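User: Modeling request: complex.
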Amino acid sequence: MNLHKKAKKRVIITQIMKKGNLISASKKRRQVKKLRTSLVSKRKRSKRIKKKKRSPAVQKRDYRHSFQPPSPAPSAAAHPEISAPAYKDLPFSYNETKLVLLLRDQRWAYGYWDFSTKSWHWIEKFRSADPGALSILRIFNLNKGSHFDLQVELETRRWYIDLGLPDTTFEAQLGLLDSRGRFHLIARSNRIHTPRNSPSPNVDPEWKYTDSEFKEIYKFSGVNTPGRGSEIFSQFRRR
Amino acid sequence: MKKGSLLMVLHAHLPFVRHPEHEDFLEERWLYEAITDTYIPLIHLYDQLLAERIPFRITMSITPTLASMLQDELLQTRYLKHINRLIELAEKEVDRTKNDPAFHGLAQMYRRKFYKIRETFERAYGRDLTQAFRKFQDAGCLEIMTCAATHGYLPLMLPVQASVRAQIATACAHYEKVFGRRPSGIWLPECGYYPGYDKILHEQGIRYFFVDAHGVLYADPRPKHGIYAPIRTPAGVYAFGRDIESSKQVWSAAEGYPGDYNYREYYRDIGFDLDYEYIRPYIHPDGFRINTGIKYYRITNKTNHKESYQPDKALRSASGHAGNFMFNREKQVEHLCDKFGFSPVVVAPYDAELFGHWWYEGPDFLNFLIRKVIFDSPSLELITAPEYFGQKSRLQPSDPSYSSWGYKGYSEVWLEGSNDWIYRHLHHASAQMQELARDFTHPNEIQRRALNQAARELLLAESSDWAFIMKTGTMVAYAVYRTREHILRFLRLHDELRQGKIDASRLSEIERQDNLFPDIHYRIYA
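Assistant: Request completed. Predicted assembly structure:
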């Protein structure tokens, strides 16, 4: 139950993140409340659908982030055929199947992906043959050898991902999970490593120090306020 | 040797904005304003200190895009036109305010200042201000660093590191041409660092760079001296950490020095205050009001009521702030040195354009600070990184952490809802550029030109300024236009190269427009 609640909170935060806004704490609370209400009703709705459509194998899985993103559902024309370039608009697609992860900060990554026409046709064929198939971003924690799944909309072609763990190497795979619970790979990402969020536990024996020395020097250095100066800096530039 | 050192860093940067296709282009004014408000006032300051034989030590980064613009003939000619118009306006202002004692002295002050600036620009340095900075470097007072070629934000280039290498290699080659020697240090754009990039810096002969405080504090293993000593990265480059306290005292709009009530108010410009018909010839040709650079008010208070600017009072504030800044740094170094027995270095980096442009009295503050530290301080000395290395025999090995000096300390400013769409295009272009560089080993003349121009277009698209502007929400259309345009130019050149049909006249046209880095070699992407 606790895990379920945590997952739900993550979903809510992800939805707020996707709006791409920096918002005040009170506004955030209001948004969280609003989203929570809408999510509960969505969840009830989706449960009813799941019961009707999905096989027991899929229902057993714990999709930690299983939700519909707030953006409107993309139309069938969202991935048009690649046409000859006119060099007036940036291409919608580079006709290349790939998945890329970028590290935004200590816990969030941004993933984007693209498909070749051939891959897209394969996906469409797969989904029409297995309507219960889910589009999955599978996030691998390479330090622990574990993974978790995010259900995504392939058509959005981008996702903010709460990795949640500092000092860890991650990799992602984009794929389809069929009704029998088997994962079919579409693209594999590059690797990223989240930074540490505290001083390193490692001490060089040649550069030893006392506890009080460490505490004081690090306090002076601003260890508890990373980015504090930076906030002030950006505040000034916004004046 | 004194108890501790102060390493003052000014990061001078503007994105490459040059539009020969337009007679007058609004965004080109960023350069003209920075020359008038910051670069020439800094040159005046350094010249004065040098004339008095004051052994000052300042570190400055002059980005390759800025240096390219400062050396560009078209922009030099346009700047001269700009300063001439300002002089004309100042003359009119002296006449208009002759019966107004509160403003007449100020109008005369601006007139004097603009004439002196023109003299420095045109006669003293023959329109090429990079040579002024080179002179101070050759005199041993100014340490000039390079920066990534177009100020590309490096941590978000991680998937195609050929772009990181090209940004650094192009910058170093350009620096050598402008300043006559290889760069020793680099200012990483937005202090953006990702572990492993030190190898690329080392390959180019870079000895040191700067990161934000947490880049050093979270380094591995723990740096014994925190941010008060640089660390030696695995590739053998030195990383200095930013001192948060020094930054806060200067940067903060609310509690920092620039908010002092005696200082000049940036947001009250005669371009907006005066009668429309009178000011019309000096604002934008399309008729909308813009800043002229002539401002008569001081900050006064937090309300909209403003009183006239009084330069003598402002100077007193600048002197007081310099004294306060030095006092705080002295306390920092005395405490650390007395208690822990090492000589700390305090790194205080700022955007150069803060001094003079946003904070009008900034150059005066620097003037007072330099003199006070050199003549009055028993415990503090000004230093540059190479001098620091000369004094220290050994520095702690440690691997800096991923970090930037942007909001929240990482990449959120350049990667969020407004600008995340650019990366799929930038990465695609980077990968394609790398393939082109590997495939075209023996190009003919026109292919070589097209390949070099494709590299220029990619570099220009990568400027972190566009993502930053998209995020801040002002001039967004221009930032989107620039990103799109450079990527589209790249894609077209790529296709033409692959198809063996290069449009020579179009290539000449974009070579004329995006003309920076004339000596670039596309093979840096191979």
